[in-house]
Amino acid sequence: MNSNQEQNNEEIMDVEKIDSEEIKIDDKSIEIEDIYKFGWSNYSEITNGRFAMLGFLAIILIELISQKPFLNWAGIF
To answer: Which DSSP state fits 67?
Structure first.
């Protein structure tokens, strides 16, 4: 048990020794493209997810305000 704790402490100390200057990060990897592209892309997926969240929020608000299930309110059931 003691040897495991000592090993963990050594690993933590090794991590603390790393300076931010030692870590090389490519500038291009930091940039996030927020440009519209046709088809399956990150931008399209994020936009569709946001609209889906707004749609679910709208359904919840309709149910809370009308005190009816959404399907009854929409005339489906």
So the answer is: S
Side chain identity at residue 36, one-letter code: Y
Residue pLDDT, tens place only, 12-51: 555 556 655 566 666 666 666 666 777 788 888 899 999 9
For residue 30, tell me if it sits in a domain. Answer: no
- Is position 35 within any domain? no
67: domain range? Answer: 41-77
Q: In this structure, is residue 47 part of a structural domain?
A: yes
CA 57 to chain centre: 18
Interatomic CA distance for residues 5 and 12, integer angstroms: 11
Q: Do the Cβ atoms of 33 and 43 come closer than 8 Å?
A: yes
Domain count across the chain: 1
Would you list the DSSP string of 20-38?
A: TTTS---HHHH-------S
